[in-house]
Amino acid sequence: MGGFFGTVSQVACATDLFYGTDYNSHLGTKRGGLATYSKEQGFIRSIHNLESTYFRTKFEDELDKFVGNSGIGIISDTDAQPIIINSHLGRFAIVTVAKIANTKELEDDLLAKNMHFAELSSGVTNQTELIALLIIQGKNFVEGIENVFRHIKGSCSILLLTEDRIIAARDHLGRTPIIIGRKEGAYAATSESSCFPNLDYEIEKYLGPGEIVELCADGMKQLRKPNKDMQVCSFLWVYYGFPTSCYEGINVEAVRFASGMKMGRKDESEVDCACGIPDSGVGMALGYAEGKGVPYHRAICKYTPTWPRSFTPSNQEMRSLVAKMKLIPNRAMMQGKRLLFCDDSIVRGTQLRDNVKVLYEYGAKEVHMRIACPPLIYACPFVGFSASKNALELITRRIVKELEGDENKNLDKYATTGSPEYEKMVSIIAERFGLSSLKFNTLETLVEAIGLPKSQLCTHCFDGSSRY
């Protein structure tokens, strides 16, 4: 996926920019970039590969070169960013959190208009440059961003750094968030509100779908009103979000806790304790333990200093290695016990298979699994959900193919909680991985825990509902 941070201040911005961008590190693992602007030196940019290290280690030593009072930063799983453009709109740097499904169509259209692409990422078009070229077709930035909204299929949230301001534009259906922060003498815009507390910003505003604002050190101005329709990604609360972050004013940890507590109150399984799969399963497990009335135990701990999230590497062998190495089981907390584990989701099943095997080897009497969201039936066309290139990387679709002979057959039935097809699929997953029991949260419970109307949430990966 990806996350960004931008700030404009009455004083030098490098420290806020560095830490604010770093606080988005859980959203991406491939590339990081910073850009600042000063009247004396103009735009200053740096981009680094993060696949073998972290953002901080790449940028800490060169931080002094980022002079100026305004800047933008990005941590991404897609393109090399920021890019810098000189156009009839002026000079600007741009970062995006985007996934464009119709890149080839847009690329062909722009080439036919005698435009060109200079920023290639791994030999293919850099989608941030593509978005920039769509923007400069407008008579001004607002018209250009609206041109992006009209033409792309997928999602796109944008930060622009000009010579005198930052422009923030949220995806036209609000699939990815932008939060505005304010402190004395400075404004900031980011994907994650968890960037703000330690930098002394207070949340000023959650941008609405398609809303565009400009930020200066002494104020914020709305350039485009928000759209009425919203399809914010529900998986933000399930997995992506840092526990202290809020989207639409709704805290990530509170949602995870509430969904776990609701499951715990209804669950009739007999277990000795609840445990969370770090990190995103912990909040749910704490809620489950309270709802069920059983203690919370840390039977598995994550070794945080060196291992990133497990599903982001594109190589399956590396994903499997990271999934194994980052989580360390604690034999003393599981011997002879009926353990119930909470996790955010089951994507490929790699991590689940390896974890359950180890748990039994370490003396667990029973291993039950509770999942925060419904089964993932559909690949996501709207945000950079995972490195998956096709639906068969989802364990659910592989089982559908085994049962139906076609991975696309009767998907609506497999996505319906309680249907015979659903129950069969879940029982196969549980049996395949040796689980004593397996239950997924219902879509209704997840929506209730988030607290927004379902019409404002994108739940495509669960039920196939979609809208570009």
What can be said about the biggest beta sheet?
Answer: 7 strands, antiparallel
Low-confidence stretches: none
Number of strands: 25
Strand percentage lies at 25-35%
How are the strands of the biggest sheet laid out side by side?
Answer: 3-2-4-1-12-11-13
Roughly how much helix do the residues carry, as a percent range?
Answer: 25-40%
Class from secondary-structure proportions: alpha+beta
Tally of separate helices: 15
What's the shape? Answer: globular
> How far apart are the termini?
18 Å
Gyration radius from CA atoms, angstroms = 23 Å
Indicate the mean pLDDT. 92
Features:
468 residues, alpha+beta, seven-stranded antiparallel sheet, 26% strand
Outline the structure in words.
It is a single chain. The chain is α+β, with helices and mostly antiparallel strands. The chain has 15 helices and 25 strands. It has a seven-stranded antiparallel sheet with strand order 3-2-4-1-12-11-13. Strands 5-6-9-10-14-15 form a six-stranded antiparallel sheet. It has a four-stranded parallel sheet with strand order 19-22-23-24, sandwiched between helices. Strand 14 and strand 15 form a beta hairpin. Helix 3 crosses helix 4, helix 7 packs across helix 14 and helix 9 packs parallel to helix 10. The protein is globular, with a radius of gyration of 23 Å. The model has no long low-confidence stretch (mean pLDDT 92).
Quick summary:
This protein has 468 residues and is of the alpha+beta class.
